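Handout, section B. The chain below has 97 residues.
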Amino acid sequence: MAFAGYSLGGHASAAAVERHPGYAPELNVVGAALGGGPSDLQVTTRRVEHGPLFACVLFAMAALKASYPELPTDGFNERGLAALAEAIAPTLDWPHR
C-alpha cells in the first residue's frame, strides 16, 4: 500500500504513514508521495493569521502538540494558547493514540 496526497491531502497522507505502525500494523505500507504542504509554518501563519485559514494552522499545531507535548508554544499569546488548548482537547481522547 502507498499513500499519496497534495496540500492538506499530503498532510493527511503523512499522518497516516506516521500512525500506521500503531494503528494498523497489518498494512504493508511501502511508500508515500507527499506534496504541496507548507515548509515554513511561521511564514504560513503570518500570511493567514487574520483570516479563516488560520484554523488550519491552529489544528496543525494542535495535532503536533498532541503528538509532541514538548513542542514550544512561546509564539502564542493568551488567546492563542486558549484556542490551542481547545483544539487539542478532543485529540487527547482519541482511542488510537
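Note. The chain has four helices and two strands. Compare this with the example in section A.
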